[in-house]
Amino acid sequence: MAGNRRHRNINTSRILRELWISHTISRVELARNLNLNKSTISQIVGELIERGVIKEVSEGISGPQGGRKPVHLELNRHYGYVLGLELRPESYTVVAVDLTGDILFSRTENAVHSGENLVDEARNLLQTLPRELSWIGLPLLGAGLGISGIIDSNRGIILESIPLGIESSLPIVEMLEPEFSFPVFIDNDANSCAWGELAFHRAKQLRNFMFTLIEFHRNSRKQFYDNISVGMGIVFNGQVYAGTRQSAGEFRSIFCGPEEKGQFKASARLAENHGRIQDDPEGFHAFIVELSKHIALFVNTFNLGQIFLGGDIERYQDQLMPVLIQEIDNNWSYDEHVDCEIRFSSLGDKSVAYGAAGFVLERLFVDPEIMDLGTESTWLESDALDSLLKSGA
């Protein structure tokens, strides 16, 4: 019996994933793409339509031989919405999106966060926001938290966070989730941005890329960092790479010595005076060159197809772009031009929160064929899929 339920959950997840990626698709195309028989497709699709998760849309074009026009299917964008939250030491940003990724609501507010109050602050936001957003008229399907630090996203644990002053494991999801009717997820802020690109550019099937998140903090009580923070979300074969100890993407310039306490040698001289590197043209250019040299190394070493840059750096893209292109070419030994697309996010301080919402959608519409065994077991043998299907309108 459990085996039948597991098999059915796998097929349901695969169908939902295919619909999410394709936007609009017919039953015949679903059966062909997933190598499932028509009766299986018809049964599961019928139940999903009845639940309101998917809907039938306008008929397509009949084939060259004529006959019935295929009826297409798509996810019901009004089935529910998800929340993405970024909790910074000095503020938070929240974004609500529907199932297609359209932003329904966003807000950034000042707030002080640290390891001492993080769980309480997150709990308060997850309690009050659904009530505040009742005007959306849709059920909340899940919430994602994007937080700076070393995060074990599978277990929902903050292992360490220098910006938030967290020095030992904090099982934040375990502490929060039992209080809510929707699932709660967490990941590193830069990884959240990478998940967002995967989720909201899903039809493009991005495979190997890196999201570089650059933020300039207004204030800092960090012991080792200055007012610049840079993190990297790395994607290989369509999956965010966490690393052996969940710390992939944590960055510190190779030009820094023991005497530098920040992430960049170029900004070290400003740290003691709490200066803003953006206000020092010479120092800011040195920072851009130093950053670009590292990105170039990753682009060429791992043969990345795209580089995404987001956060506060977006307003300085005219200064960064030519330097980054030049450094990528300088780092390459062969004659041909390096084929790597460079794109800037346009979301500013919403990048992490939007990405955290994308992470939730990636988890809700997960592909069981590419999950690791631990995550697959947790998802398919729990009531998580049933919870998703029962949550909607």
Automatic annotation (TrEMBL):
GO biological process entries: regulation of DNA-templated transcription
Pfam families for the chain: HTH_24, ROK
Listed Gene3D superfamilies: 3.30.420.40, Winged helix-like DNA-binding domain superfamily/Winged helix DNA-binding domain (1.10.10.10)
Domain of life per record: Bacteria
Entries under InterPro entries matching the protein: ArsR-like_HTH, ATPase_NBD, ROK, WH-like_DNA-bd_sf, WH_DNA-bd_sf
Family from the record: Belongs to the ROK (NagC/XylR) family.
PANTHER family in UniProt: BIFUNCTIONAL UDP-N-ACETYLGLUCOSAMINE 2-EPIMERASE_N-ACETYLMANNOSAMINE KINASE (PTHR18964:SF149), ROK (REPRESSOR, ORF, KINASE) FAMILY (PTHR18964)
Name of the molecule in the record: Putative ROK-family transcriptional regulator
Biological source species: Salinispira pacifica
Species lineage: Bacteria, Pseudomonadati, Spirochaetota, Spirochaetia, Spirochaetales
